[in-house]
Amino acid sequence: MSLPDNSTVLIVGAGPAGLTAALSLIHHGCRDFVIVDAIVEGQNVSRAITIHSATVEALASINAADVLLSRAIKGKSIRITSRDSQIFEAKFDPLKKYSAYPYALFVPQNVTELVLVQKLQTLGVRVQRPHRVIGMKQNEQDPHTTDVSFEDGQVIRARYIIGADGARSIIRTISGIGFSDPDGPNPNNHLLAQMVVADVTFEPEPVGPLTIEGHLNGTVSSGTIFMLTPFGNHFNDELTRDGKSITKPIFRVACAVPVENGEPPHAPPKEYIQDLADTYGPACISSVLSLNPTPVKIDQLIWSTRFRTHSAIADRTFTRLGAAIFLVGDAAHIHSPAGGQGMNLAIRDAIFLSEVITKHIQASAENPDVGDTLLQEFAEARHARALEIISFTKNLLKLASLTYNPYAWWMPFSRASVRDLMLRILGRFDFVQSRVAWGLSGLGRR
């Protein structure tokens, strides 16, 4: 597909960050932009599944929340359990004192992307695919623009470039921006260094409190955690792959795989996921009779993947190569999925960035020598916010990775058992539940 020669703004990447950047530009009055992506069509796998209150507010501020609200499951709480009993529950209802959206939305990422793409289409904008960036250089005639070249030979000249092209960002690489863990190189500094995620159905359908929609459940074992989120039949059509019909309720499962178990397969098969469920999951989805009086087994494996839970952040999220270049989403920062913060921060970054860019466009029209103060201040603020989130998710990982091994021979307690006891006690107090829900919601770190 032919691209224009010039554009005020070029958005590279059409994941949640790129799509919301485009919607935010339109909302704030800028329509002179192009959004491109390197792949032929959007992903059809679920990946991130949680949209927190602060992100719903940000989406609502650009009129992009209504359809997601109608499609998603409104999450009531996040629970921490042992294999057979509840330890702690953070209910979202107390957030109604602070937000019109006192819940987390549970919705697969591909559904989120589909909704955002359709919203863009209703506004007359389409993602241009497939267009892979291979180079950038300052324009020879206009020092405030950049020539962006693509694999198919086309070139766009742009004044602002938003790099929303993921953890392996070509925009970040060409711009010469470093990308590393803010705490330095410390691989495998915790036991939750690798995870497996899958969408599955069970036979027979599991029963019990953890299988009720509206709750995200984390079952802690020694040095690991197993997540279970019921989707019901809400997303069966969107998660169908290879033409296979799905009629049973779908469950998202995720498990931190201990490093001593070896590296998980690239696309873990059903048997591998079943073994994780039997070894670390809640009793209600176990196929082991001694754990579950009504054993269940994974029936359909809809999708699975593995990933590492490392953290990294760009040295800076704003630079110039002629054009003003920004990084958002995974191009700017990555971290563990603990607390479901990654996509949320990406969306908020993109929405707020587009507002700042439109203000800078307007200011530049009135005064060509306006400078970059507005852009630099925004970039520094979002960089600081990303560092906060990285620290927050690392602390959650440390808490989840505690083991039940005795602290010492003379003290028959383990760090994990002390954690569980404290959570059981503190969970009785409403203000503690409220503080945990507040921390996860993002309302205090928009």
TrEMBL record:
User: Could you state a single Gene Ontology molecular function term?
Assistant: FAD binding
Which keywords does this chain's UniProt record carry?
FAD, Flavoprotein, Oxidoreductase
- Tell me the protein's name: FAD-binding domain-containing protein
Q: Secretion signal: which residues?
A: none
Reply yes or no: does the keyword Ribosomal protein apply: no
Pfam families, A to Z: FAD_binding_3
Give the organism's phylogenetic lineage: Eukaryota, Fungi, Dikarya, Basidiomycota, Agaricomycotina
Q: Which cofactor does it need?
A: FAD
Say if the entry is tagged with keyword Magnesium: no
